[in-house]
Write a structure and sequence with these properties.
205 residues, alpha/beta, Rossmann fold, 6-stranded parallel β-sheet
């Protein structure tokens, strides 16, 4: 159905409000995960990659948004005990756009995705995505333009890009603007609706 750009959009005031409520400064680089807390979403890979980064930098945070479907949170917290205060477990939400507007980059080390709608929704908020290069996701992210893709299960490469993003906010903002432009062009509700109408029109004719 496309992205509702009245809902998923950049919002400076909301960014400040959410960060303040979560005790996160404006200078921090916030990585956001939105989805099921499940093994096939690569959450253990994400914990490993972020732990390495968090041990090097104080100005980073990871927000985990989504239901703990497999009861993994306690185990994941044990793996990240030393840097646990930099990870916020925010649970299920019906307003993911609030966290997207306040984040700097979406992280999705998933092993399988149908498409990755969350990527396009984050892009509507001018938030780029770092993800594994898998089917579905490669249609949602233009590598180097709207986000960054690395080989699946390459935790070291994933962590390296997180480190690069944390150290270069201007680059992250540039990727975010590229993501926002692509959503408006290819994935807005209007553009998707018109594409479907043209598709059916072609069949009927």
């Amino acid at each position: 159905m496309g992205v509702d750009q009245d809902r998923f959009k950049p919002d400076t005031e909301l960014r400040k409000k959410i960060r303040l409520s979560l005790g996160c400064s404006e200078r921090s680089c916030v990585f956001l995960f939105v989805g099921r807390i499940a093994r096939d979403k690569g959450v253990f890979d994400l914990m490993e990659a972020f732990s390495r980064l968090a041990s090097e930098r104080d100005d980073v945070a990871l927000w985990m948004v989504g239901p703990d479907e497999e009861g993994l949170q306690n185990e994941l917290q044990q793996h990240t005990a030393e840097i646990g205060e930099k990870i916020r477990w925010l649970g299920r939400t019906f307003e993911p756009e609030h966290f997207m507007a306040a984040a700097d980059a979406l992280v999705l080390p998933s092993y399988r995705e149908g498409f990755g709608m969350v990527i396009i929704e984050a892009a509507g908020c001018a938030v780029p995505t770092l993800a594994y290069r898998i089917d579905g996701v490669i249609d949602a992210v233009v590598d180097g333009e709207t986000g960054v893709l690395v080989s699946a299960r390459d935790v070291v490469a994933f962590g390296d890009i997180m480190r690069a993003m944390a150290g270069d906010p201007a680059w992250v903002r540039k990727l975010g603007q590229g993501a926002l432009l692509r959503v408006g062009r290819d994935f807005s509700e209007r553009s998707v609706r018109e594409a479907w109408l043209n598709f059916y029109k072609g069949i009927l004719e």
